[in-house]
Amino acid sequence: MITDLVVPELDKLKSRLQQTWMAGDYDRFSRYMEGGAREFYDRLNAPSGCRLLDVGCGSGQLALIAARHGLEVTGVDIAGNLIARARTRAQAEGLHVRFEEADAEALPYEDASFDLVTSLIGAMFAPRPDRVAKELLRVCRSGGTIAMANWTPEGFVGRMFKTISKFIAPSGMPSPVLWGDETTVRERFGDGLSRLNLVKRQYMFDYPFPPSEVVEFFRLYYGPMSRAFAGLNVEGQTHLRQELETLWSSHNRGSQDSTTVYAEYLEVIGMRA
């Protein structure tokens, strides 16, 4: 079990995860997902001036939206290059946001430091989910809000991860998409939340190019996909590409020259006890 790893083994795993998310160009990748991020943020109804922590913030996708609305924002991510990019984006817009490289399993903040703790498709990828849940609860004040968006096992991204897993060795981690399972989420937060609302929603992937080019886009810019392809020989890469193109094509609601796919995620919104 991941919880039984000794420190050197855990450090190696964390290093691999960090390298995975630093691969590709997540900033460029995430620009096509900003619409869904805005929809997620708008449903939070966060008042101006509240203290928000975005865990697994990437290059600032959600954090920058919150800062534009007058929140006091902190964003953390394990990938240092993404934090650097988020700082650059904030500076370019004249936004005051604190971005720091940090681990979702060991957040460097005092208890009850934030009114709102969010994670948009981020903290779900940490290897020890129970520790993540404890940290999200710890840094959120009583009566504050914890909000997550997590891919579901049965949704499109869950199927995509399952396709990739046929070609690469298992990581030894619990499946990230378990964060998209309602029963699992309730167990992980336990009595730390006084109220918990779980709703399945759809995140729209919308690209002005066909599925074959979407697969190549993911290979170039999405770290996990980039690392998956890099770990295969030419034959393996060909088979993986074919299966992914079939998956994207079969779910495409766009035209022949564009791609529109809806990916299910579990929206998690809870009140800290």
Textual characterization of the structure:
- The protein has 273 residues and is α/β, with parallel strands linked by helices.
- The protein is 43% helix and 23% strand.
- It has eleven helices and seven strands.
- It has helices spanning 7-22, 26-30, 34-42, 61-68, 80-93, 129-139, 156-165, 182-189, 211-221, 223-230, 234-251; strands at residues 51-55, 72-77, 97-101, 114-120, 140-151, 193-207, 259-272.
- Strands 3-2-1-4-5-7-6 form a seven-stranded mixed beta sheet, with helices on both faces.
- Helix 3 (34-42) packs across helix 4 (61-68) and helix 9 packs across helix 10.
- It is globular and about 50 Å long.
- The mean pLDDT is 95.
Q: What is the structure about, briefly put?
A:
By secondary structure, the chain is an alpha/beta fold.
What is the strand tally? Answer: 7
The major pleated sheet works out as:
7 strands, mixed
> Largest beta sheet: what is the strand line-up?
3-2-1-4-5-7-6
- The gyration radius over C-alpha positions equals 18 Å
**Could you tell me the mean pLDDT?**
95
Please specify the SSE layout and strand pairing.
Elements: H1 7-22, H2 26-30, H3 34-42, E1 51-55, H4 61-68, E2 72-77, H5 80-93, E3 97-101, E4 114-120, H6 129-139, E5 140-151, H7 156-165, H8 182-189, E6 193-207, H9 211-221, H10 223-230, H11 234-251, E7 259-272
Parallel strand pairs: 1-2, 1-4, 2-3, 4-5
Antiparallel strand pairs: 5-7, 6-7
Salient structural properties:
11 helices; 273 residues; seven-stranded mixed β-sheet
